[in-house]
Design a protein that fits this description.
Helix 2 packs across helix 15, helix 7 runs antiparallel to helix 17 and helix 13 packs across helix 14. Helix content is 32%, strand content 18%. Among the domains are: 205 residues, Rossmann fold (3-Layer(aba) Sandwich); 115 residues, Immunoglobulin-like (Sandwich), CATH 2.60.40. It has 23 helices and 26 strands. The strands form seven sheets. Strands 11-16-15-14-12-13 form a six-stranded mixed beta sheet, with helices on both faces. By secondary structure, it is an alpha/beta fold. Bound molecules: alpha-D-glucopyranose. Alpha-D-glucopyranose binds next to loops.
Length: 743
């Protein structure tokens, strides 16, 4: 019989049918290698792998901390460093680690949240694109640039569901919806890691913050979280499960307590659910100092107890508490922490180091030539512009004031017209914010041959002076069209940036009023890391664009939208309240026993006496320069057997005169169940481009899993009954509705 080599066999067979076998063979090889290293390690060296420190000083001038850190690294007492970046510095510190007895390489980690050198829109803005391919590309480019700079591991994606715009970290996530959040979690994990960890362009991702960090009381960062098991499993955990299923290399726990227990000490979260039920094989890093923070929480009496609780709860690596360094050896010797738990944590960490290829080549990601090439790839900026364009949401466009027609004289007014660093907001770790393209620069370039553009700042972002108003009025009077760029400062969202008031700061509303009083048409661009409240402007402006923070290409992306070169397609990933008093406000609410809208009961109903229940703008809302019609809703059956998939088809038509993209959203309501169910829940969506007059049939497949809900004591269940199906371009404007029965 003719001999075939393995390669030929693989070519003949369908490689992917073999891949699980190949992956498990690779897994077995790595496990074997991990075990061989573990057997050589002393107790101190094992504990050493669990320690992670920030390296901001480690490459700087001599200091006590620098010397301590370098000595610890040299003696194998450090497993990972964060905030060391660049080929030069990572090589230098890695070389110190390779002086240790076992030469175990370090993991270099960094918060590559929305780009490394190329600054992409903040994650909440990217979520508004509803474009999973683009979100994956964005993460892939971030990983390519970071890995070329010696980084092995990013602390992203942040997959915390957030329903409270007072919370500053809402900018880091995917907004309020569990289904959209889960899809984005997957896209970002694949983007950062590639199809398989270990490729030269991929870095370890990190699903954070586990768990329910976005539900902090009053939207105040680091505050307690208290919720039912059902709410936790139904709303907050699925994006983490999606990340785990996508193979996310690590998890990071969170600063909050969950029902009285700090997440970093939660056996329920980390051992029962993550490493137990989900059988998660990666490792968990504590958030910065969160192990030590059990003491101020009043949960641990001292660092020794904190280390014991964290280790027994499955927190594998200690970021910046020094709890394990100081206490773990004694805890092991006293039998308070089993050696098997320490070995498990060490094996999880060693596994990732070997999987990344660091044992074969500790300098694999530290190549000067590759770093130079990756940092200067023009393709990256083009993709960042595309992501930014697709993240822009058109909220209002009276009399089609946009796109800008003809050679109008344009007045640019507002404190964010020339902003650059603000466009990057927070969590930029390497960016040259001076190179960001401001709105002013973008429009000046785009309209250089068409329009005259004047500029006045009008007022500061904060502060009370109105001294700039007069200049703003003058240039408005001399223009055909005014574009105002307003919002909050880029550093008013992010970590520890909760706001009790989410209006536009300073005199911006007053500036709008005096400019609008000139009688000119006024387009308002609002920028921020969260939903902001600007109801008065919403009512009076002729057009409104929401841009969140669009990153390096903001000015060019907005210019393309103003010129009509790009027809805006963004949809809100989070509800915009009318007032802070409505918060938390989200689209998938329960109907209550006294819903608004019952004509027989207009007083004793679930409503405010001073505000509508409805939001200023709904989840999933966003306009286009064209219009779309929905028709021909068909179901494969009106009576569904359990386990049988439901096929849904509709026809979408572009009824306008320009091409455009629509995000078709499919919602379900379980009308009667053994738990009160939301009035609707997003279960699928599709974003597609249609030319003017073009129609396309879309089909969705709804599996039984999408009909399930979580019940304490029973887990995920489905119950027979009637389901309402709604399809449309916004959660509050479903165009097609029908019902079906699950048997
Ligand atoms: C911070 C954040 C976390 C980040 C970590 C490292 O406190 O909570 O998201 O990844 O520390 O910077």
């Amino acid at each position: 019989m003719k001999k075939y080599n393995l390669f030929t066999i693989l070519l003949c067979c369908n490689f992917f049918t073999l891949s699980p076998l190949i992956l498990s063979a690779q897994d077995a090889r790595i496990v074997k290698r991990v075990d061989s290293v573990l057997r050589l390690m002393t107790l101190k060296e094992k504990i050493g792998q669990l320690n992670q420190y920030t390296g901001t000083e480690v490459t700087g001038p001599a200091s006590d901390r620098k010397n301590t850190l370098l000595n610890d690294i040299r003696s194998g007492m450090v497993g990972s460093m964060l905030n060391v970046k660049g080929v030069k510095d990572t090589r230098e510190i890695q070389a110190v680690a390779l002086q240790s007895r076992l030469k175990i390489p370090l993991l270099f980690s960094l918060d590559v949240i929305h780009g490394y050198k190329t600054v992409f829109p903040v994650p909440l803005a990217e979520a508004a694109s509803w474009n999973m391919d683009l979100i994956r590309q964005s993460a892939h480019i971030s990983a390519k640039e970071a890995s070329a700079s010696g980084i092995h591991w990013t602390f992203a994606p942040m997959v915390d569901i957030a329903r409270d715009p007072r919370w500053g970290r809402v900018m880091e996530g995917a907004g309020e919806d569990t289904y959209l959040g889960a899809q984005i979690a997957k896209a970002r994990v694949y983007g950062f890691q590639g199809d398989r960890l270990g490729g030269i362009d991929g870095i370890m991702a990190c699903a954070k913050h586990f768990a329910a960090y976005g539900a902090a009381f009053a939207g105040r960062d680091y505050n307690p979280v208290d919720m039912s098991e059902q709410m936790l499993h139904e709303v907050y955990l699925p994006p983490f499960k999606a990340a785990a299923d996508a193979g996310v290399a690590t998890f990071m726990n969170s600063f909050n307590t969950l029902n009285g227990v700090p997440a970093t000490a939660s056996v329920y979260l980390q051992r029962d659910i993550l490493k137990g039920k989900w059988n998660y094989k990666g490792f968990v890093v504590s958030d910065w100092g969160s192990i030590r923070e059990m003491i101020p929480w009043g949960y641990a009496g001292n660092l020794n107890e904190a280390a014991e609780f964290a280790m027994n709860a499955g927190s594998d690596m200690d970021m910046e508490s020094s709890a394990y360094k100081q206490e773990l050896e004694a805890l092991i010797k006293a039998g308070k922490v089993k050696l098997s738990l320490l070995d498990d944590a060490v094996k999880r960490i060693l596994y990732k180091k070997i999987e990344l290829g660091l044992f074969d080549d500790p300098y694999k990601f530290s190549n000067v030539e590759r770093e130079k090439q990756a940092m200067n790839d023009p393709q990256h900026a083009l993709i960042a512009r595309n992501v930014a364009e697709q993240s822009i949401i058109l909220l209002k466009n009276e009399q089609h004031v946009l796109p800008i027609k003809g050679n109008q004289k344009i007045a640019l007014i507002g404190p964010l017209v020339k902003a650059k660093a603000d466009l990057a907001s927070t969590w930029t770790v390497y960016a040259d914010t001076a190179s960001m393209t401001s709105v002013y620069e973008g429009l000046k370039h785009k309209f250089r041959n068409k329009s005259s553009i004047s500029y006045a700042k009008g007022c500061d972002l904060n502060g009370n002076t109105t001294a700039g108003f007069e200049e703003a009025i003058q240039i408005a009077m001399a223009s055909d069209l005014v574009i105002m760029v307003l919002g909050e400062a880029g550093d008013m969202s992010g970590e520890a940036k909760s706001r009790s008031n989410i209006n536009l700061p300073g005199q911006q509303e007053a500036l709008f009023d005096v400019v609008k009083a000139t009688g000119k048409q006024v387009v308002v661009v609002v920028m921020g890391g969260r939903p902001l409240i600007f109801n008065h402007i919403a009512e009076k402006a002729d057009a409104i664009i929401y841009a969140f923070w669009l990153g390096a290409e903001a000015g060019n992306a907005l210019a393309n939208v103003f010129s009509g070169e790009y027809n805006p397609s963004g949809k809100l990933p989070i509800t915009f309240p009318r007032s802070v008093g409505q918060i938390p406000l989200f689209y998938n609410y329960l109907n209550t026993g006294r819903p608004v809208g019952n004509p027989k009961e207009i007083r004793y109903r679930s409503a405010y006496i001073d505000s509508p229940n409805s939001p200023q703008y709904a989840f999933g809302y966003g306009l286009s320069y064209t219009t779309f019609s929905y028709s021909d809703l068909k179901l494969s059956t009106k009576t569904l057997k359990k386990g049988e998939p439901l096929r849904v088809s509709i026809k979408l038509t572009n009824t306008g005169d320009v091409k455009g993209e629509e995000v078709v959203q499919l919602y379900l309501q379980d009308k009667v169940a053994s738990l009160a169910r939301p009035v609707k829940e997003l279960k699928d969506f599709r974003k597609l481009m249609l030319n003017p007059g073009e129609s396309q049939e879309l089909t969705f497949t709804i599996g039984t899993d999408k009909l399930a809900f979580y019940k304490s004591g029973a887990g995920w269940i489905t119950e027979p009954g009637v389901f309402k199906l709604m399809i449309g371009g916004s959660s509050d404007q479903t165009k097609l509705e029908t019902e079906f029965t699950l048997q």
